[in-house]
């Protein structure tokens, strides 16, 4: 009974395993290894059902049929495994191998069902599992049945020939990674043969063990899956680091714990209360030391594994943008070389000459690339900013510009590049050289680069502006550059030109640079969006995050017409892509001139006031809200509100710098003063009202501002 249960459990385990197989290399017909895994799982379950029928005393013909089907599919699995390894990483559809596979499958069918000597019975008698078959060869010391020969041919013979062909192909290939993976698949065959020999040996002591014969195919399958998903070359350094990590982090603590256990057993043979107390204490000490030192060990260069995401992110996010630009590029290069293993990186930025030109690069390595290169346009359409050579060589979506992409990679001596774009405008391109380990850039690299894309964009945007000497002087260049960034953001707004409304704003950073933010975006003739708010933090880092957020809002808006969904996507971007701890507090609003209605979502806005012309009073309308960047799912925490606008109504939104500013006596400016100013200045244009709000604040504080001030005034004029 236990062997029947084991077969079914292993089959279920293989079904679960099939869901973990990476399918990024799948073709139109699915990943063949997934199909192969499901096939082996089905055979295990079929074997379990056949054994159950034998145990329950089912009719012999039924048991024989199930047994024959089990071993037929076992043979077909072996043929399928051979076909998978022979066509591994092959771009051509080999018709000959496909036909040969089906010929061998038919041969298995003929031998199992139509050769009378092959399988004549399938039963369990006296606790012994028997597959009855006529004798093919018999000597004094050995007896080989027809069924034994079938298993040898399927599990050993044909795979042996396949393995020879595999090794010949590995010897002739120039791709080191492909060669390594082919050899690894060959090892999979050896693992099966060793398992089969051990299975045969175990049957001498427990004949029922033969009912688990399918188990010898599992190591082969697992190794095939590992080889197909492996995308790095196992160099000596990687093998050494992996071994060292295993010894220091896992094996050594286990040995110490084992010695403690053995020593206590010798000292306290009766295992009294003292024994258990000392054992618990010793185990706690080992675990404490393991936790305390394990992380430190893994951060050592000699111990570092290939999962570099966390360390690389820390290195990139810690770059100080208030330093010298050459130092910034040097730190960026050092981070890529240390953690990503790249030989070199080159950053080319828009030089406003129609070319992308490299910055802080040796003279003999300088590059100039036309910014209107056709491959950039295709990549922008695909929204595929991160390009690896493997993608350029094989992905059908870039077939029209494949030659241009490969030429770009070759001319820049790179294996990958990251396109830094703001909408359709390319700010720069970061070119990455080959890895020192000769490994190709893989799926893990792609995920890490995607996660840190906003940080790379910051570097590109910074360098583009820092190299413009007409904007940035030689003294305090980074501060003046950031002021220019903020100015350029405001100049890019779609100012509201509808005759129904008068809009004005003031945004004054306390220290020349900051993260406060106003944007206006024209949706159509009858709708206009506005955003006002602040990203936490000060200085260049906050202003750079603001640049990125503005770009992302416009990009997502083109793809997401749903107002609330747009805010949800912005929340996800801030949480996952901007530096850790970044959040946005403000208001998203849409004015619909066709029905004189303002729709808005409060995202932690400190204040949103409305002056009602009819009642001549000012009320707060923002209600409850939640800042963006903290909650993983913001959808349940925000909702769209609306307010009807009439002629003479005024909406004022501001950041906390206006409300929380204090005078020399420590008195807060407060919301009441903002409301009073709105009523006093209601007859002035919106721009004047924004200016008066700021002037009144300056007069109240009587000292330099400590926080950024941002005010947006929307004065509704009505009419048609």
Explain the overall architecture.
The chain is an alpha+beta fold and 720 residues long. 51% of the residues lie in helices and 16% in strands. The protein is built from 22 helices and 20 strands. The strands form 5 sheets. Strands 7-6-5-10-9-8 form a 6-stranded antiparallel sheet. Strand 5 and strand 6 form a beta hairpin. It is elongated, with a radius of gyration of 35 Å. About 2% of the residues have low confidence.
Report the total helices.
Answer: 22
End-to-end distance: 85 Å
Strand tally is: 20
Low-confidence stretches: 23-29, 469-479
Structural class, from secondary structure content?
alpha+beta
Q: Radius of gyration over alpha carbons?
A: 35 Å
Task: State the shape.
Answer: elongated
Question: How large a portion of the residues is in β-strands, by DSSP E?
Answer: 15-25%
**Overall pLDDT score:** 83
Report the biggest beta sheet as strand number plus sense, adding barrel if it closes. Answer: 6 strands, antiparallel
Share of helix among residues? 40-55%
Spatial sequence of strands, sheet with the most strands? 7-6-5-10-9-8
């Amino acid at each position: 009974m236990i062997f029947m249960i084991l077969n079914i459990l292993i089959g279920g385990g293989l079904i679960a395993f099939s869901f973990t197989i990476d399918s990024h290399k799948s073709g139109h017909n699915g990943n063949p290894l997934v199909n192969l895994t499901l096939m082996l799982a089905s055979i295990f379950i079929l074997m379990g059902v056949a054994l159950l029928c034998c145990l329950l005393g089912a009719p012999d013909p039924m048991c024989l049929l199930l047994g024959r089907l089990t071993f037929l599919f076992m043979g077909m699995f072996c043929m399928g495994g051979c076909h998978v390894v022979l066509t591994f990483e092959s771009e051509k559809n080999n018709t000959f191998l496909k036909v040969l596979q089906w010929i061998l499958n038919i041969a298995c069918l003929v031998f199992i069902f139509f050769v009378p000597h092959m399988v004549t019975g399938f039963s369990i008698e006296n606790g012994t599992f028997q597959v009855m078959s006529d004798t093919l060869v018999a000597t004094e010391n050995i007896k080989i049945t027809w069924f034994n020969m079938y298993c040898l041919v399927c599990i050993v013979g044909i795979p042996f020939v396949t393995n020879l062909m595999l090794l010949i192909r590995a010897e002739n290939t120039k791709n080191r990674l492909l060669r390594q993976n082919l050899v690894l698949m060959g090892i999979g065959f050896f693992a099966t043969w060793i398992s089969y020999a051990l299975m045969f040996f175990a049957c001498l002591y427990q004949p029922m063990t033969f009912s688990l014969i399918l188990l010898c195919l599992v190591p082969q399958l697992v190794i095939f899956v590992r080889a197909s998903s492996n995308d790095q070359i196992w160099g000596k350094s990687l093998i050494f680091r992996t071994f060292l990590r295993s010894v220091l982090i896992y094996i050594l603590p286990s040995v110490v714990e084992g010695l403690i256990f053995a020593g206590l057993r010798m000292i306290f043979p009766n295992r009294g209360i003292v024994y258990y107390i000392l054992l618990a204490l010793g185990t706690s000490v080992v675990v404490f030391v393991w936790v305390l030192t394990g992380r430190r060990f893994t951060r050592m260069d000699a111990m570092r594994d290939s999962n570099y995401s966390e360390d690389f992110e820390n290195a990139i996010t810690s770059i100080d943008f208030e330093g010298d630009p050459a130092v910034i590029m040097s730190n960026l290069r050092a981070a890529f070389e240390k953690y990503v293993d790249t030989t070199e990186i080159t950053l080319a930025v828009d030089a406003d000459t129609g070319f992308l030109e490299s910055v802080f690069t040796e003279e003999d390595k300088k590059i100039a690339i036309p910014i209107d290169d056709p491959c950039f346009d295709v990549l922008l359409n695909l929204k595929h900013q991160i390009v690896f050579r493997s993608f350029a060589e094989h992905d059908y979506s870039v077939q029209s510009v494949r030659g241009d992409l490969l030429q770009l990679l070759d001319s820049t001596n790179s294996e990958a590049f990251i396109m830094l774009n703001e909408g359709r405008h390319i700010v720069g391109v970061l070119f990455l050289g080959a890895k020192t380990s000769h490994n190709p850039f893989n799926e893990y690299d792609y995920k890490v680069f995607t996660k840190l894309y906003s940080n790379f964009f910051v570097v590109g945007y910074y360098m583009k502006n820092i190299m413009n000497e007409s904007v940035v002087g030689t003294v305090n260049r980074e501060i003046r550059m950031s002021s220019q960034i903020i100015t350029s953001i405001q100049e890019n707004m779609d100012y509201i030109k509808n005759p129904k409304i008068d809009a004005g704003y003031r945004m004054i950073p306390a220290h020349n640079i900051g993260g406060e933010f106003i944007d206006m975006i024209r949706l159509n003739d009858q709708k206009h969006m506005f955003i006002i708010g602040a990203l936490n933090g000060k200085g260049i880092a906050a202003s750079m995050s603001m640049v990125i957020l503005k770009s992302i809002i416009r990009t997502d808006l083109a793809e997401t017409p749903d107002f609330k969904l747009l805010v949800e996507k912005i929340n996800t971007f801030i949480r996952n892509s901007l530096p850790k701890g970044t959040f946005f507090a403000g208001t998203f609003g849409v004015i619909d001139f066709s029905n004189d209605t303002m729709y808005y979502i409060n995202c932690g806005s400190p204040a949103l006031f409305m002056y009602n012309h009819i009642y001549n009073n000012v009320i707060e309308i923002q209600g409850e809200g939640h800042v963006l960047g903290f909650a993983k799912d913001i959808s349940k925490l925000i909702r769209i509100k609306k307010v009807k606008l009439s002629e003479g109504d005024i909406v004022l939104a501001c950041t906390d710098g206006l409300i929380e500013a204090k005078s020399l006596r420590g008195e807060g400016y407060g919301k009441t003063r903002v409301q009073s100013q709105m009523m006093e200045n209601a007859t002035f244009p919106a721009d004047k009202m924004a200016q008066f709000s700021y002037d009144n604040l300056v007069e109240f504080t009587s000292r330099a501002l400590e926080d950024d001030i941002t005010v947006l005034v929307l004065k509704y004029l009505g009419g048609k």
